[in-house]
User: Fold these one by one.
Assistant:
Number 1:
Amino acid sequence: MQSTGVTKAELGPHVAELLSLKAELENVTGQKGGGGSSAQKPKPPAPAPAAPVKPRKEPDVSKVVWPTVTMTPSGPVPDITYGDFEVISSVHETGRAFVPVASLGSSSSSAQVGAEVWVRGRIYNVRAKGNNAFVVLRGEGGATVQLVKFKAKDADEETVAASMGLIKYLGALPLESVVDVRGTLVEANVKSCTQGNVEIVVERAYAVNRAAPALPMLVEDAARAEDIVEASQGTDRPFPRLGQEIRLDNRWIDLRAPANNAIMRVQSAVCQLFREYLYSAAFVEIHTPKLIAGESEGGAGVFTTDYFGVQACLAQSPQLYKQMAISSDLGRVFEIGPVFRAENSNTRRHLCEFTGLDLEMGIYDHYNEVLHVLHGLFKHIFTGLEERFATELAAIRTQYYSEPVTFTEEPCIVHWEDAIAMLREAGHEAEDFDDLNGAQELALGAIVKEKFGTDFFIVDRFPSAIRPFYTMPAPDDPRYSNSYDLFLRGQEICSGAQRCHDADKLVQIIESKGVPVEPLESYISSFRAGCVPHGGAGIGLERVVFLYLGLDNVRKASMFPRDPRRCTP
């Protein structure tokens, strides 16, 4: 009372008045406290239903505000062992020496057991419980290594707390987040990782870029072989089926799966081997226009666009320019570039945009000179893939099974007339002058494989009626032509021919096919200035990769495929 400044004597009258009012109320109601009689006492209200007991919710560590780590010229701030980097925006060059995940545990690696290493990768799998954390880190190309962190023992309180903080931090990182990790490389036996003979004891871990907590698909699911997915469907824990559309809609995630990533590397390898062989054979690489007036090959399947008030189209091939390069005395030329086909073909082997591997060369006597170059080229590609890119092929064949391609030492050439006869003898319908359909190609591939023991062969002398206007007719029968297709596992991967280099004869063929001559005047003029006999071929890169690897759809061999139904992403 003293502290409030009010004395007991001053409160007395107020207390007496309250007691008097209380007595009067009890006299009126007949009950102490002012309630009514027992007869008049209303029923107590029904008790409110008990609120449902909520299950205990574990703390959501994903919402924890982790330390933000500043980068200094010598690296991360040294007294913070875990946290999220500020956005790396080229402020400093720290001099940190990173070791590729794929090299860890190798005798040729720059980091051996016992070394302190920096690695960068994605969080592929995490198990953090209690006093330890186990993380699978995935590097470029799908190589994986295990990271481990244990609670510090026999250490001061601050060190123990720091180790537990790091364990919780690792456990809270979303899958697919990009992280930098520093730790000690030690010997191990981890069967679930590609780098199974080592692991990293983590000392520091920093998120470079966090992935969203919920992604549209998991890399683990994208990497699973179809037969394993199918076998799981009858169990109580079936694996999810990822259809083609969700994969292509999220292609950047799909391509993180080791097999799909390796397919892109094999695609690159085919281009590398293509260039290697042709450079060694005195070819010159050229780059031709993709915006052209008229149409590349006189067909209807072109994409048109406005070119400053004039209609132009996207090139169906570099065909006409390759030939003009020969007329320019470049001798032997090749190109790797985009090809556009406005064909409404929704099949497993057609694309509206693909990468063309094209070549053209002068010949002295016969188009067989081109065929020998093509055969040597593909031998170089096939052997180069198996010998120099075995790691990538192994990753692919884990998910998509295939056998190495078989081929002959010398070109296996089947003339058109013989191919038709072989099909008929095997019970297949085949017309003399109609093009082969997909079923006939596959059937012919099986026949040739059985007869000659090869997955790779050439058919020449196609009917002139089904070949483009620039094809040279056969000298013995103009119904046939000096043309050829190359087949792999029973499907066409390359088309070519000796070209008609005589301007007058070329105009006759163009007119006979009903193709307008005027848009081709520049092309024709290049032969009026004199041109050596020549031939060449056009190869579809994605189709080569798709068939070599035994894939079920060419879209798997295209980074971001374009077909009649897809123009994104």
Note: Residues 33-59 have pLDDT under 50 and may be disordered.
Number 2:
Amino acid sequence: PCPHHGDETSAPESASVISMVRGVMGFHAVLQNQWTRAQVESLVGAGRVDDLSRRLCSRMSFGTAGLRAPMGAGFNRINDLTVIQSTQGLYSYLCRYFADFSSRGVVVGFDTRGQEESGCSSHRLAKLTAAVLLSRDVPVHLFSSFVPTPYVPYAVKKLRAAAGVMITASHNPKEDNGYKVYWCNGAQIASPHDKEILRCIEEQLEPWSASCWDVGLVDRCSLRTDPLTQINSCYMDELASLCFHRDLNSSSPLKFVHSSFHGVGHAFVQQAFRVFGFPPPIAVPEQKDPDPNFSSVRCPNPEEGESVLELSLLLAERENARVVLATDPDADRLAVAEKSDGCGWKVFTGNEMAALLGWWMFFTWKENHPEPADAQSIYMLATTVSSKILQAFARIEGFHFEETLPGFKWIGNRIHELSKTGSRVIFSFEESIGFLCGDTVLDKDGVSSAAVVAEMAAYLHNKNLSLIQQLHNIYQTYGYHVSKTSYVVCNDPPTIQRIFSRIRNFDGSGSYPKTCGGVQIVHVRDVTTGYDSSQPDLRSVLPVSRSSHMITFTLKNGVVATLRTSGTEPKIKYYTEFCAAPGQRSAPRNDRTELSPRLSSTDETDFQPPSHSC
């Protein structure tokens, strides 16, 4: 066990930790990567005990999107050793679960991330993942080049693989990387698989053999195949099923700009546009090629809005393009902006774009299924912290709507379950600009969403409507849904714990707040503890999720506010929404929606969004 160390560390304690580190360094596995070895040696030489303890005294655990952490030396970071250990655990669990594992194999993909100082790159880590499996005679479908994240779950289903691994940290800062695992159904792993894989990892931490470190094994082993050409062709063929107005697209005067945010998306979005009959979108030249440093943006997350879309908007102005599309670095999310006549640019929130895409997917579905009774066989899904606009659609149009816990792993697994009953999910989303049109892939997909948004915009343009105008039409029909979402960064887990403990014990043990901003709270749902005051048995309908915090308050004025921790970043996120009745012609007053919760875990701690950083 590792002792706790504060700013001042006694000589015996320091010597003890440094001795421990030297022992770890002596373990041959850690010495296999010269860059991470040099990082540890440098920290030891500088006596950086606290940093060493953080790196070497804890391990990563599966969160909302698998493993995600900074690259570098240490057991709580992404590096050669932790990826090898994770893959050994994954192999052991899959062997126990699938009798035919040795014939089904595993799909492995990667994005374009890399870090020179630690010698880590997504491509290298993908090869190491493959090497571990190949060393145990397991077939590996390793993509020969970087791919969008949705290609991995798509390939898992198409190739009937036992599982898939995507090496990516999506839109996280450049220092991070990740290890995202998909189950045989094509959805991200969920409980109990995640916990069982972690247990298997911890049972065998020492690399099995020298072959596990051999990145060249993928070039020599006959069990390694490259699925890129087949999967890309099949994906684009199936993408055509989401295209309904190809002739209109090919003749549309509308121009589009696309940014791939220095990631994988450029070539794939260009190809998707061709499938839909569009000319390729105008690429932002500074951002179309992979760059692991994301050198032209302060933050590689298009969800941050206009401040990170500056180059895209400037190019659109020069080219007279009305719509800007931006995929995040692994191309599973999509941001959209539209030129607003006389008012600059409108950057749509995830909730607003979901209202448009949800409307469009039902509109195009209804064109081919005119009988009202047919709607009983289709679903739309959204995470519980996302807008309730799809619920409003469902009430009026007669189809089904369901909510899930935050994270697309819940949506993907629910789509799979519904498909077994003959039901079809035609649209799903999470408010953090994650959309899925159709059910071909069981994860959010920025590539297909970009093409669908382009077709929707072209169709509306032909009707002399903009995306903005159609959004207002939707609200007038189904009721205004006005939301506000933001976050605060908190890098100190004990502080986060105190904040949520304070909320759960606001007026004594087990007592939640009674008011928010002077408005009465009528219901509280806490999925971390399983409590829901709106239910007769006081038990949450949504599954209990003890691995993170999430509390939802329903206010008397109709506002729903949720506070939760992020599963991928050191953030406390909050979500508020006011849902007006259909036919109400104006949005509610700002003082009902511009909620900035003041959350005090102690007298000294006061978080007031939206003062955040990335």
Note: Residues 350-368 form the longest helix (19 residues).
Number 3:
Amino acid sequence: MSASLIASLSRLFGHQKRSDCTLVFYCNALTAAKDLKEASAQEQQQDSAAAKAPNDAEQPAAGPEGEPAADQDLKGTSQETASDSSDGPDGQQPGAAVDAASDIAGAPTSLSNKRGGSEATNTPAKRRKTVQTQARSQPEALPSDSTAFGDPLPAHTLVLSGGSERFRAQLDRWVEEQGNGAKPVLRVPLDNPDDLPHALSAVKFMYTGKLDESDAATLLRERRQAAYLQVEGCTEACDEALLALITAAQPSQQQQAGGPLAGVSQLYCCRDLLSSADMAPATLRKLLDVCRQQLVKHAGAAPDSGQQQQQQRAGAAPAVVPSATGGPGLMGELLAWAFGDAPFLMNDLEVRKQMLELSAAAMEALLDCDSFATDDESTVLLMLLTWLEANPSCTAESRQRLLKLIRLTQLSDTYLFRLLPLTTRSIISSQELRFLHEYAFAPEEKRARMRRDAGSAGYDVSSAWYCDVPRPAPTDGEVSGSGDSRSYEWSVGAADLWAALQLTESKRETARVYGKFTRSGPCVVVDGLEWYPSVQFIKGEDAAGIYLYCKMPSVLQLNLTPEAPVRASPGPYRLEVYKWDRGGQREVAWDDTCTDDFCRIGSGCGTPDALPFKRTLPSAAAAASISAGDAQRQQQLLACLAPYLKDGKLWGCLTLENAGEQG
């Protein structure tokens, strides 16, 4: 709809005498019964006198078997659903008001209280009486098991049909069933009366093309209703408003209490709404990316206790969460939410780049935060060492303070006993490391003696190094995705495959080429170690091997003279390679599922004959003379791998199962 048309129609908004249709919002019987039951229970708890003599008129109506209607509705599907499935293609009886619930997925769930109101003005008792009164006053316009709320809204068919695909479908069906003479009455099911003000805001947007000034929670709730009502342009407008709220250069008076991170704090406070806002993954990713950008700019230091109390009173920041190590948790909570858990942070190139730009104070807040999750403390140590390498200007004092926040006793055995003693980095002295090894596995009686003796040796057993509490495991979240399993797409370019094939035809017995993950780069970090997918060719063999290789991170700066080979495992995983049929459909050409296989660091786990092929290469002498820039010959050499290639690459996927478990 054009801006000029919206402007002209906006003048009509609210004039009942010019309206030519009506909107009626209602909730189904299941929701109404639950609301009545909860309201009755609350009243009985609040007023013991009233509980002794309950008003029968205030109780839910009894069902056919003598049970309360609420209990009956909670046992099964509402009558409206059954009616929609039996009364014609649209679930409507002839002559009934049009309802598009059969065409569109169920109404959204309850989200919030009414905007601009308070609990005091919308108590359960008042809402219950209002619901009952409205149900009695409009029985002819609604299904028998539905309850209307709010006044009927005068509207205009031109605006509704032009601004919403949902309303357009309802109006078209009305004309088909009722003809052009009757005034359309469009019924819209909602789950809860609290959704009504946000649904009305979405309808108002169709008239004005504008959103009311509001906070992040209100914008997310309005966005959900706009998506449900299919209001064109409203979800996009909500997204733009959220971005503007987060990046506001001149915060409003309400935001000033929270400073430049007020918008980020608001979004954090209503983070549970993000997963229910029907937001596309790309949109959510952009929103969180902007939050991280703001934190990189402004998370220089956590506010003091006075600032925290002021922010809490203003409702602009989350509550302070005390850390197990004693530091303030406010800034850390924001960082841990926006940056996700440690494996996600290390395995996303863009997020890792933003982490490297954090200040030392921000890194300290993140590491000190108890809600910062990880697969193993080894990944947290690797993250910190990566940051220190990228920030050489960090002072020695800050460096030591950051290292003191690593929970060394929670490191994997591979790190704690094999790699940490070999690093040339100044993390912990060899004497204290031996003390820590003994302390980590000592019974409590012995630990008590060791704590008494630690002071004379200069060891601080109250620091995070000796913390008995592991960090939480990754869980499902809007930032990092699933905590149970995570998949990483990888590929190998045709030029790299060609080069490896050539080597096995001319110079080498074996040639290996490593893949590259789409979002993670050359490797995936698991339990503080790097894992690389690889393709291996053997001279004279008509098959390619697929392996998952483990390497030591170079940032550890290890003295590579271990007495025995160091072994490691990424945990349960599934490694796949794809192929494509003639129709372009993807199939799994090979997969390997491992439960808990260990391999030596510097080698890999896999299968030498994973991808069979028929060699069509020229002789060794001819292959050696082929120029790397000869594209035609390259295609000929790769013809043997053609079933496995798409867009000039071999594609696969690594799925880490139980990604949230500690290593």
Note: The radius of gyration is 32 Å.
Number 4:
Amino acid sequence: MISYFQLTQKKKKNKMAGLYNRAVVALLSILATGHAFSPVPPVSSYNHRSTTTIRRPSTAKDEAAEGGGGASMVAYATVDARTGKTTGTSHLSPDAIERASVGNPIEKIKLAKDGTSAFVDVYEYAARLRRGEMTWEEVESSDMNSRLKYAGMLHREKRTPGRFMMRLRVPNGVVCSDHMRFYADCVEKYGEGDGVVDITTRQNVQLRGIGIEDAPDIIDGLHARNQTSFQSALDNVRNVVGSPLAGIDDMEMVDTRELCNAVNDLVSLDPITRTRGNPTWGNLPRKFNVAISGSRDDYAHTHINDVGLVPTPHAVTGEMGFNVVLGGYMSIKRVAESVPSNMWISANRESVVSLTEAILRIFRDEGGRGDRQKARLMWLVERYGVEEFKNAVVREVESYDRGVTIQDAQPGPIEPFVRRELLGVHKQKQVGKSRVGILVPAGRLSATECRQIADLADEYSAGEIRLTVEQNIILPNVDDDKVAALLKEDAVSMDKRLKVNPGFIEGNLVSCTGAQFCGLALIETKSQAEAVAKKLEKLVTVDRPIRIHWTGCPNSCGQVQAADIGIMGGPARKLDKETGKMMAVPGCKIFVGGRIGEDAHLSLEPLKSGIPLDDDSLIPELVTILKNQFGAVDKKLCASVTSSRSL
């Protein structure tokens, strides 16, 4: 069957028939993958009752309506009349519904108006906005700030009122040149400041500056390219992370691409309608992260995911499989490293999907729906105990009767291993091919840079682009005899933001969104992170990559606890020379010593706190840490030593 990338290349070669070929590409790419967005069947196809009734404790509102106390009977729709699809609530156990009905405010919003049909509201709101029948301020508040997240739309109320960040689903981080040009087209109209594209720490893409009135065209365009934004935010399974070197790595243990796509389809493809958005998993207690690692490098960061699959051969049979780790996450109240589950599964599609489905089912129906800070999977695992949770998962998988078995965890490798770098030029397992990793500072891309990447991909990597959790990109399958030409391209020259061979500090930068767009952030991160990295490169020399992560608040979306050096926004005070008083200023905490890879470790306590963010305060602190902890030397001293040696 002809591939999506081959179709894209045919389109390029026939510029005169551009519009026609674009339509053909979109249609055939959908049909070729089996993920077509076909019309929904009639409601009767579901074999669901139209409502489900449960008894729950009455509220004051109930008593006023019914004229009495005690328990009240509450009916919840099981099928959404507008979509013909089941509701997320209809898949919950009665106990879960009962707990949600008296749970936190988000749970009550989800019960009152099911989130899995939020995309319909997006289309309806957009139509009314375009006709001038309403303004964005008149959109229902619970929709604007909560429910529309089910369509991947996150309102940035505090920073850019009326504008949204749209989060996509990009399993295993694989995109193509057509995608990149489409992203550029989506954001360009909003201007260089607001209309940008971000690569995330989940190998994902976020489009910024989006207005509701434009969202339907973007959603339709994504679906035509076999992508979606549905169920990418709030209480859903987030983007499924895999190895960015899948299929091209000579040290690969598992090709994660098929497995990531299979899990993505499990959670976001309706098995009945074959349309995007799966109500079965449309009402989880909290977000849920899955990472599937393909090698000992653990490029997927399994230690900070709810479910992490670590490639491990069976000690007796040699069959390749996964040890399973559970419960890793970062939040404002708790940062937890995943724990071994004593489970091993075969590295095949059926086993991976069945295990994920089993854990999700238990989490969906038994996870906490009260305190949202105690609703992640780790809390449920701890409530069970690891061994009992394993037993529950085994029973659940056995009930599916798919021939999947879960065995005890297998011993991991003991030979020394050094995690390999993703930036720069590296040989692939395919003879005559190389992968080329390119820095995207802080993961931020302009529309122009998106198109530049698309052009490079078309010219050198058959249109294919890989995203990494370090917020950078990889062009795979570059002909060895074309690498030199790629390195000479103006888009990746040393005076540009995009670089193939950046310095050890600027090349390992990770940053959350920051205060430019995020209302939770205490500081601006992306622009400051990029500027500070450049200054450090001019001041010191290091002999290995140093990972500096920035995050605007304790939620740690920038994963500072996993970094060599992590900078978290926080309070600080500094002497005001005019008044002689200590004044509150933007500041940070500094974490040191996090690790990734096989010996992953989270640094949970800051080395420094209350450091002002101005260069005069922060830069000296970072230089001292780089020297004391990582062997950095002054740039001038290094140049002097090199000069004397040459004599």
Note: Residues 1-48, 641-647 have pLDDT under 50 and may be disordered.
